[in-house]
Design the sequence.
């Protein structure tokens, strides 16, 4: 059976433009726009709440969600009966710990049981995770999730001074151009949203000049992108002494490494505003204009940081990020283990908003290197040996053995043995001399099917030992 996307990608460019804008108009239709503005006004009101009022709002929404789960979601109805918990016994936010942590495997294995029976099929949408940490996971969201997510997006964009009349470039996972295409355009324009969508799948040295030319012609005020994608564009511009001033660069969906932030902010002469979320829960936290951390969107989810015993840790202490969604009723996720590590910050943001702050999420547990002496080294630390390397186009770190890592490298014509020597020296300083490091030179490093890029891939199965955590 031919999918709609396949028909689109096989069509001539002129017909793709028509189909692209029909789809864009559909998802930003009149009803959707009305719901979006109502939700945005609500969110603008909440950002002025006191911290105690935000906590009260969370508790109110949690009670509604717990009652819904017990009455309409078979998985939770059975679970609550087994642990002898009545919804009325959730009297404060601390009572949330009485509900066991929900794992990714439980969600994958209980799709039907976790689906709310009181919501008709035509009122929910099927979604899936990108599969960057394994096989994709399918789940359901409310049909009204689009205007809700759009409202959270615009509140966050407004913090950066980005307005409705501003233009933006998008560099994310959707396939908008056939992969075999070798001549421009490598983009599609959404006239309803002043959005130029760049293909993430054509970012090669040969084709990047076309991207830059189009960027200057379009003159956007912001870029919304995967960190790895906008970094490729920015690095090319930096290497060719080009800049383009914008209001903001918005990043999400991947780890944002310090070297990426530095290069992107220098080239586009603005700050990056990062977002932390999941396919399953889009808007967990967003960065404001003060850049003191990411604000937890407390009306969207209850975010906890737990230790190995599933107990909350003190602010400023790293642990596993566990989230309870407060917006999606089609398939509620209560105390869902995200697979990420992070920390809630003890300080208050000088911007004046009273949302709790969290530190940037630097890595997934799966994406740390485990050294022979049992140290966990995050991707942020591993960027330092690469900072002085001017002749590496792309790289990827893969660990299949605790004693050995492999570095895949796409090099330019100026790369030489001295570059290899410097890189190996830097990596051994970071990882220790007992770690064997092999350099493998390749023509390209593939992205995932969703267009994302994993810089550090560790295939070592282990539990996080937070006492030795060097993230």
Sequence:
């Amino acid at each position: 059976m031919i999918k709609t996307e396949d028909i689109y990608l096989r069509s001539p460019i002129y017909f793709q433009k028509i189909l692209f804008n029909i789809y864009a108009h559909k998802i930003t239709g009149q009803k959707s726009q009305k719901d979006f503005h109502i939700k945005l006004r609500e969110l603008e009101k909440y950002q002025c709440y006191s911290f105690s009022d935000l906590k009260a709002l969370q508790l109110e929404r949690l009670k509604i969600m717990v009652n819904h789960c017990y009455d309409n979601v078979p998985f939770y109805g059975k679970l609550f009966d087994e642990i002898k918990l009545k919804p009325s016994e959730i009297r404060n936010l601390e009572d949330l710990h009485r509900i066991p942590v929900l794992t990714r495997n439980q969600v994958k294995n209980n799709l039907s049981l976790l689906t709310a029976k009181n919501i008709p099929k035509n009122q929910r949408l099927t979604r899936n995770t990108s599969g960057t940490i394994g096989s994709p996971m399918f789940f359901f969201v409310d049909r009204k999730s689009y205007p809700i997510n759009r409202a959270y997006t615009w509140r966050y964009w407004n913090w950066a001074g980005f307005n409705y009349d501003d233009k933006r470039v998008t560099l994310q996972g959707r396939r908008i151009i056939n992969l075999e295409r070798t001549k421009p355009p490598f983009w599609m324009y959404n006239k309803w949203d002043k959005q130029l969508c760049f293909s993430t799948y054509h970012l090669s040295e040969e084709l990047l000049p076309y991207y830059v030319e189009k960027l200057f012609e379009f003159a956007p005020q912001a870029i919304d992108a995967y960190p790895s994608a906008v970094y490729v564009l920015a690095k090319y511009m930096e290497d060719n002494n080009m800049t383009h001033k914008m209001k903001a660069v918005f990043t999400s969906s991947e780890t944002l490494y310090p070297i990426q932030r530095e290069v992107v902010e220098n080239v586009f002469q603005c700050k990056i505003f990062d977002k932390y979320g999941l396919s399953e829960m889009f808007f967990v936290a967003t960065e404001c204009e003060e850049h003191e951390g990411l604000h937890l969107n407390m009306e969207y989810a209850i975010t906890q940081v737990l230790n190995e015993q599933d107990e909350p840790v003190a602010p400023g202490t790293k642990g596993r990020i566990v989230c309870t969604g407060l917006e999606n009723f089609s398939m509620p996720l209560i105390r869902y283990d995200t697979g990420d590590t992070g920390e809630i910050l003890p300080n208050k943001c000088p911007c004046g908003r009273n949302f709790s702050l969290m530190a940037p999420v630097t890595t997934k547990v799966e994406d740390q290197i485990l050294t022979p002496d049992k140290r966990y080294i995050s991707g942020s630390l591993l960027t330092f040996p690469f900072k002085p390397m001017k002749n590496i186009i792309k790289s990827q770190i893969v660990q299949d053995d605790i004693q050995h890592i492999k570095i895949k490298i796409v090099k330019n014509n100026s790369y030489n043995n001295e570059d290899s020597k410097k890189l190996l020296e830097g990596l051994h300083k970071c990882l220790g001399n007992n770690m064997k490091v092999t350099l493998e030179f390749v023509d390209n490093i593939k992205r995932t099917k969703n267009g994302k890029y994993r810089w550090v891939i560790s295939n070592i199965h282990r539990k996080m030992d937070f006492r030795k955590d060097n993230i």
